[in-house]
Amino acid sequence: MNQDKNRNKLKFDEDMIMLNICASSSKELLKELSQVFYDRGYVQDSFKQAIVKREEQYPTGLKTTSIGVAIPHADPVHVKQESLAVGILSDAVIFNEMTSSESLNVEIIFMLAITDSGQHLIMLQALSEILKDKEKLSSIRYAATKEEVFQCILPYIKELLE
Q1: In the structure, what pLDDT confidence band is assigned to residue 162 with cuts at 50, 70 and 90?
Q2: Does residue 62 form part of some domain?
Q3: Which residue segment(s) compose the domain that 105 sits in?
Q4: What is the DSSP letter of 25?
Q5: Does 161 reside within a domain?
Q6: Measured distance CA(36)–CA(40) in Å, rounded
Q7: Cα 142 vs. chain centroid, distance in angstroms?
Q8: 24-75, pLDDT tens digit by residue?
Q9: How many helices and strands in the chain, by DSSP H and E?
Q10: Residue 162 lies in a domain
């Protein structure tokens, strides 16, 4: 496998999962979860501010049948290594809903750092499968450990990791 192909593979492991996050606002939450990417060298310094700004302009909150979710991301120019981070909140944070901009209580955040538009689409399709599965979404939201969250998500994104 050449180095370029390896670089484009999605990075996701238990260290990319944060449980019981306490945040007073969506902006605070985005900055806190962005730090996970930055600490690993997966994003540019500009990523944190870019993801906050993009969320203000293009909200990513999604209403599911059970639990509010957000899927924020920033433009590829801010990304060094494709990766996924997951945040589970102890208490819901208000995001604007993607299609209506109405306020939405979000309890799970799937933050994307992706450069390739094809991979971005595959990731969104994988996440939409999780969002359709009320039981799976609940398992992620109420997981006691990072390992439980990881094992819930892994089957949906495995092809992006290999």
Answers
A1: low
A2: yes
A3: 3-155
A4: S
A5: no
A6: 7
A7: 17
A8: 999 999 999 999 999 999 999 999 999 999 999 999 999 888 899 999 999 9
A9: 6, 5
A10: no
